[in-house]
UniProtKB/TrEMBL annotation, chain A:
Residues 19-405 form the ABC-2 type transporter transmembrane domain. This is ABC transporter permease. It comes from the Bacteria. GO terms for cellular component: plasma membrane. It comes from Cohnella xylanilytica.
Automatic annotation (TrEMBL), chain B:
One of its GO terms (molecular function) is ATP hydrolysis activity. Belongs to the ABC transporter superfamily. It comes from Cohnella xylanilytica. This is ABC transporter ATP-binding protein. Residues 4-231 form the ABC transporter domain. Transmembrane segments: none annotated. InterPro entries: AAA+_ATPase, ABC_transporter-like_ATP-bd, ABC_transporter-like_CS, ABC_transporter_ATP-binding, DrrA1/2-like_C, P-loop_NTPase. PANTHER family: ABC TRANSPORTER ATP-BINDING PROTEIN, ABC TRANSPORTER ATP-BINDING PROTEIN NATA. Keywords: ATP-binding, Nucleotide-binding, Transport.
Length: 433, 301
């Protein structure tokens, strides 16, 4: 126990002191601080930009003929209603043939007077002209959307006017349909839309955290073991302390360092997110931090712990059989793929938390830390499902831990080319482990 | 109670035999030489003594007891392939290794300072290992293996890669250890070190011990066949004396002769005296080097 403690504190001390660790933490911290403010900044930029100016052709006298003129008036009224005007219509003097008009409008774009322009082509059959929006920007979805909505309203109003409907009938027609979705929960009152949004956001964030920290700390452990092996300190270490204590000391030490890093980073992110200006923009995205259930946090920690140890043991075992750090990347590939698979299945599951694939995967040890957590967050699995999943996970942590310790014991003294499974079994027999 | 006893120890790797039936005893305050060509099974033997691998057959006893965790504490090991944490400070890693072997932090630190003084490199206490010269790294490595005052020390190629001054320094330290009662299992390819330090040796060849005993006794088993002769004037006709197998002429009128039997030496001396005064005459016992090459080399054929 004592020497495990020694290994642990030595591992932690060296990690905390290493420049790469400090630099990585600072860089990630800064990125998170910036990232946490992105929604707010986006809001700022979006509103600060003012309405998009869209041009249309008018004759030299500044008037638009007949039908199109009504449409433009209707559009201007419609856009004027909104709190923040999305689109502002700008008349551009252009006359002559359609080609000449287009040239004049394009010139206006080059002069930065307008961002794009509208062309109306009469369509007798529809009773409403076909409208084309020309813009130099690709995928100018927001403007196109605003224009379409505006045009639809104008068209509807025209039709309604023709039908001579009363004000009452009009408001009936235009009243939006109310549909609110509430997730049904066996125990509580269910999650409102806002809570669901928060749950998805939180689940997503924790999935990324879990994935990242498993990958980063796992790699750290493997690298460190391989480095010890390639610098041959290993020979002295294994003669001073039993491999099992060494393995667990190292894993726990790295875990604590990883946890510390995580706490710092999450703390930085939360400190920024809780700023008043950020809270508003989060709320506008349907995420309310105060609606996070404590149960979610507990499960997040639980699955983080188990998932971490499961993968850490695997990484340690792989690290112990590789002699040179250059070979490590290749050797940990299978584990990386396993983690990636779990992560992507979980991302898929964000939209379909009830699919059979997700249900099955929530019991498969290497995926379940990601996927059972996802189900708890989004799909309300039965308690026995959670218990079974955790039990399977715990059992496989023990099994993998035991196996990894054996591989580690035999692996750390094997040098030369990367051993095959057969070599490893042979070595295990030779070392009586 | 002997500090270290191996009895008929056998180890197989799969169908390959790495060590077959080695037995040896190391007394208190003794340096025991373990010799052998590359791949003869020395490292496997040492690893078994260290408890890294367990023997298939036979018995290893430390002060009469079998291997256990408390035995770890009294073992010190200097591996053949040197290795420290390159990016960790000398003080940190030595104290760490000392702690792993049961020292308190304070004791380990005090011991380290004493050893650094002993090697006249106290300024390296706060340096990283990668900043040190190879010789100094070697010294640090040596300190790491003895920091916890082990009763049994295993030195695998302790002096390789060192300059002569440092070899002498380290050799003196090893002798001090021996004189303070430490038992040392010593492996090297440098026969002159073995002759200087060891009382008993085992020469291993292809996994089995082929020659064992005290150096004196082993040497007496081999006939004295080497004659060194030096005179003021050149001596002629040495190679025509019956029984002389080989004659080598050194600079400054020195001769080295290989003879069939020791009594041929007397004939050489008489022959030389007839031609003038003899400055030096010696009938020499075989060097360990010759014995090693003969033992290992002959069974190669």
């Amino acid at each position: 126990m004592n020497s495990m403690w020694t290994v642990m504190s030595f591992t932690m001390r060296n990690k905390l002191r290493s420049k790469s660790f400090i630099v990585t933490t600072i860089i990630l911290g800064v990125l998170l601080c910036v990232g946490a403010n992105v929604p707010y900044l986006l809001d700022k930029f979006a509103s600060g930009g003012g309405p998009t100016k869209v041009g249309y052709a008018v004759s030299a006298q500044g008037e638009v003929q007949g039908e199109v003129g009504d449409i433009i008036k209707g559009l201007e009224m419609e856009f004027g209603k909104a709190e923040e005007q999305a689109v502002q219509l700008v008349p551009v003097e252009a006359s002559g043939s359609p080609d000449e008009q287009a040239a004049a409008l394009k010139q206006a774009i080059s002069d930065k007077k307008i961002r794009g322009y509208l062309v109306f082509n009469p369509n007798e059959a529809a009773g409403f002209p076909d409208v084309t929006y020309y813009s130099k920007k690709m995928l100018d979805m927001d403007t196109a959307q605003a224009l379409q909505n505006g045009l639809r309203t104008v068209k509807t109003e025209q039709a309604v006017k023709e039908a001579n409907l009363s004000q009452e009938q009009l408001s009936k027609l235009f009243d939006p349909v109310k549909l609110e979705s509430v997730q049904i929960n066996e125990s509580a009152n269910g999650k409102t839309e806002e809570e669901q949004g928060t749950a998805i956001g939180l689940t997503y964030a924790i999935l990324i955290l879990l994935f990242m920290s498993v990958m980063i700390t796992g790699q750290l452990i493997a690298t460190e073991i391989t480095a010890e092996k390639s610098s041959r300190v290993m020979e002295i270490i294994v003669t001073s302390v039993s491999p099992l204590k060494q393995l667990f000391g190292k894993v726990i030490g790295t875990f604590l360092v990883g946890l510390l890093q995580l706490v710092v980073l999450v703390g930085a992110a939360l400190a920024n997110l809780l700023q008043p200006h950020n809270r508003d923009s989060l709320e506008s995205m349907g995420i309310r931090l105060d609606s996070i259930e404590p149960q979610m946090v507990i499960f997040a920690v639980l699955f983080y712990l188990i998932g971490f140890f499961l993968y850490a043991m695997l990484f340690a075992a792989v690290g112990s059989i590789v002699s040179r750090t250059e070979d490590l990347g290749q050797a940990v590939m299978p584990i990386t793929i396993l983690t990636l698979a779990g992560f992507y299945i979980a991302i898929f599951g964000l939209t379909q938390p009830d699919s059979a694939l997700i249900k099955v995967c929530s019991f498969i040890p290497f995926f379940s830390p990601f996927i059972m957590f996802l189900r708890i967050g989004l799909a309300n699995p039965a308690w026995w499902e959670i218990a079974l999943s955790v039990a399977i996970l715990a059992a496989s942590v023990l099994l993998i831990g035991w196996l990894s310790a054996k591989i580690y014991r035999a692996g750390v003294l094997m040098y030369g080319k990367r051993p095959s499974v057969k070599d490893l079994i042979k070595a295990m027999k030779a070392f009586n482990v | 109670m002997r500090p270290l006893v191996l009895e008929r120890v056998v180890k197989h790797y799969g169908d390959k035999t790495a060590v077959s039936g080695i037995g040896l005893e190391v007394a208190e305050g003794e340096i025991y030489g373990l010799l052998g060509a590359n791949g003869a099974g020395k490292t496997t033997t040492m690893r078994m003594v260290l408890g890294l691998i367990f023997p298939d057959e036979g018995d290893i006893r430390y002060f009469g007891k079998p291997y256990g965790p408390e035995q770890l504490r009294m073992l010190g090991y200097l591996p053949e392939e040197r290795g420290m944490y390159p990016k960790v400070k000398v003080s940190d890693q030595i104290v760490y290794l000392g702690q792993l072997r049961g020292l308190s932090r304070k004791d380990a630190d005090a011991n380290l300072k004493r050893w650094l003084e002993r090697f006249e490199i106290p300024e390296h206490y706060d340096k990283k290992v990668e900043e040190l010269s190879k010789g100094n790294q070697q010294k640090i490595q040596f300190i790491a293996s003895v920091i916890h005052r082990p009763k049994i020390v295993i030195l695998d190629e302790a002096f390789s890669g060192l300059d002569p001054v440092n070899v002498e320094l380290l050799k003196a330290t090893v002798k001090e250890l021996r004189d303070s009662g430490t038992s040392i299992l010593f492996s090297t390819h440098r026969m002159e070190h073995v002759e200087e330090l060891c009382r008993n040796i085992t020469i291993m060849h292809r996994s089995r011990p082929v020659l064992q005993g005290s150096i004196k006794e082993i040497k007496s088993r081999f006939p004295m066949e080497r004659v060194v002769l030096a005179a003021d004037k050149p001596i002629s006709g040495l190679d025509s004396i019956p029984g002389v197998v080989k004659l080598a002429v050194h600079e400054n009128d020195g001769y080295e002769l290989k003879v069939k039997s020791p009594d041929v030496a007397q004939r050489i001396l008489r022959h030389a005296l007839e031609q003038g005064p003899v400055r030096r005459f010696e009938l020499m016992e075989p060097t360990l080097n010759e014995i090693f090459i003969r033992t290992v080399g002959e069974s190669h054929e």
